[in-house]
Amino acid sequence: MKLVSKLGVLFCLGLSFAVSAQQKNTSKPNIIFILTDDLGYGDIGVFYQNERKARDNRAEPWTSTPNLDQMAHEGVMLTHHYAAAPVCAPSRSSLLTGLSQGHANVRDNQFDKALSDNYTIGNVTQKLGYATAAIGKWGLQGSREEGWPSTPNKRGFDYFYGYMRHRDGHEHYPVEGIYRGAKEVWENETEVSKGLDKCYTTDLWTAVAKKWIVEQAKAEKPFFMFLAYDTPHAVLELPTQEYPIGGGVDGGVQWLGTSGKMINTASGKPDSYMHPDYAKATYDDDHNENTPEVAWPETYKRYATSVRRIDNAVGDILKLLKDLDIDDNTMVIFTSDNGPSAESYLPKGYVANTPDFFDSFGPFDGLKRDVLEGGERLPLIARWPGKIPANSKVKTSNISHDWLPTFTDVAGCKAPAISDGVSLMPALTGKGKQLESLVYSEYVFPGKTPGYDDFSINNRNRNRNQMQMIRFNDMVGIRYDIQSADDDFEIYDVINDTHQSQNLAKDGHLADLQKRMKAEVLRMRRTNPTAKRPYDEAPVPALKKSVSKLGFKWQAFTGDYPWLPNLSVMKPTKSGKVSNLEKIDFQKREESLYLINGYINIPNTGTYTFHFNTVHKAVVKLHKALLFDADYGYQSGDEKSTTMVLEKGVHPIKIYLSNPNQAKIPFSLTWKSNTSRVFNSSDIYR
Q1: pLDDT at residue 24, rounded to an integer
Q2: Which residues form the Sulfatase N-terminal domain (predicted)?
Q3: Domain containing 652 — which CATH number?
Q4: How is 596-640 classified by DSSP, letter by letter?
Q5: Using H for helix, E for strand and C for coil, what is the string for 222-239?
């Protein structure tokens, strides 16, 4: 296998698509991923607000998102899409790397922590020939003292324009800094806030995004854009003026590039424009139609205006794609990073922002920092004319770390073997078999779930602390205030019980599913010393099976890839069973990619130390846990070691391997405990 970093990936060209007139030499579609900050499932018209409107209950205020509704009518809604974590930093970490929160290096509340130097949605699309850009909020750059080791430019993005630091995204006027102080804006690694007077960030990021898209539409490369808005999170600031009419090439927001007038909405008064649909809105605050209605509190007028501004921006960008004649060759994804927040960052005199005013959490309980559905379930719309059926819905569950393998699939290539996600293209297009997503989250935060009347009684004022969530089919298991791996999951049928009010596992019911959930959450993760868990030292459960025949099953593959691909979803050219490694006869084989499946038999429960090295590239998984990553940046022969606490018994092992030089013995694997002998690859069973 050749690992290539430039265009010319021979076996990653399986898909061919219609191309635009301008992008004559690109057979791959453009991709735009739009991420919002703390936008709830229930904030979008087609997901929930239109339902509130239809009820015609004046005690239930509602908002509108006409452009997003139109996008949904032209594409697909994923109504069971989950955040990898219920807060921004870990959620974005998993999204960008394709790793679950059981493997991602940024977990919990590790804002501004450096994203691991590994595969990202930026560098995988970059390696597949895409021009890449990240615009808006980043917040994963690492410490300034270390020179910001993981800026977007260092994680696969050719171009960056936005807020580097997490906290800067709490203020939406970088120069005026009306409520949170002035902030820095970066273009690549140069600070450029000077001259950005009166630039409201939703407008600013949109203008920059449009400018970049116009430039890319003239180029031969396809493009990938990660557009991360910093609203409606944090301070609920208002734009300067009405959104410019028209949209697209000649209308909507525009980049002007003149200091003090960088964009065409950088005039008037900052923090002043209220959308007319909400400026004079009233509601029945006391549920008594015989008393006069009262005005919406200004806090909520601001929130609704902020959401509507995002809606305007999305409509503007979609119009641009049509104007440039690249609409049919561009996949656009719109979503959020986690559930809605109870934050406004406004001074005294404003009422608090609580998401129960609009039921921003939709038909669920929980919000940001909860692993209840309201904190984890996201609104997601995908649009790609001619490829994604219009006005459709995907009702199977999926999660944000599925997007990296989806984007590599769109570009005609399999994802890196370390990825925890699956391609969602079968679900999006309705063609092919959709693999099951690994829907899992772990998170810690002190305090309690709010006690809103809209929430089921059992979910009000829950103690949070250590939390977990896992979903199998229609059943979601959650644990709050976890004390140990023995704690039971509460199990809910989230199709028929969206508020998670009836714990189906109560009094010992669903015992088999309970046992499965407890086992699987230990089999799909690795411990992280910066995010300790009360179940870290629990032994990984063995399978309930026995093995007696030494050896393993092997599969061989051909192809040139820019990384070690996920061979488990590929069709092998050859396969077989052998009693030991040498009998594969690597030196005489034409193939250079191998997947080895077997079992290790642990003699006693305890801590085992594993050692591994390989002549080229490899990824080793035990159950679904990543035991070794010897792919990205790996140097031939470097030894890696790790420890795991394992239960006595049988554990499945997968070794993804590249051996382009046909080494006779391409890897070495050993393991032992303090009381056992040293085991090696000859001790693998099949």
Answers
A1: 53
A2: 29-412
A3: 2.60.120.260
A4: EEEEEEESSSEEEEEEEEESSEEEEEETTEEEEEESTTPPTT--E
A5: CEEEEEEEEEECCCCCCC
